[in-house]
């Protein structure tokens, strides 16, 4: 029962989300996800009341992506303290086209084919350099592309400053990860 998600959830400060009840609900959600090896709310809920509680937690205005990412990074920093670590970064495309009719698409964009609804995810996993044990996520970036966005050629991509390119995510991830553990890197 000592999965990294449970260890992180158990170490959330009571001030996270501005309400200790939200922290408690978040911890229950993490436990359910870990026990059922699923993120499907209906599948991990024991009853309708628990399902409604999880949805209310996820839709609460105080439970923001930035707060979740900050708490992940803070926890990772605690785990890294003094260790020799490796950072692994990769991007994923999350295609939600099959759910397009049920989603609030205001925070979504288009994915690689420039048609399907979704977003991009770029997490950085920190590992103990000797054992390879995962210590946490030092950085998580989510982003979208607007429908009909211009191609690299149309944007004159080669002349854009690096900060205006999608590839800047790798630099941003490295800088954020270094801030979590400024001492020893592979």
Molecular structure report:
By secondary structure, the chain is α+β, with helices and mostly antiparallel strands. It has 6 helices and 5 strands, in the order H-H-H-H-H-E-E-E-E-E-H. It has helices spanning 4-10, 20-36, 41-44, 48-59, 65-80, 168-180; strands at residues 85-89, 92-95, 109-110, 117-128, 134-143. Strands 1, 2, 3, 4 and 5 form a 5-stranded antiparallel sheet that branches. A hairpin with a 6-residue loop joins strand 3 (109-110) and strand 4. Helix 1 runs antiparallel to helix 2 (20-36). The longest helix has 17 residues, at 20-36. The mean pLDDT is 83.
List keywords for this structure.
alpha+beta; five-stranded antiparallel sheet; 5 strands; 37% helix
Q: What is the helix/strand order?
A: HHHHHEEEEEH
Distance between the termini: 30 Å
Low-confidence stretches: none
Strand percentage lies at 15-25%
State the shape: globular
- Broad structural category: alpha+beta
Helix content: 25-40%
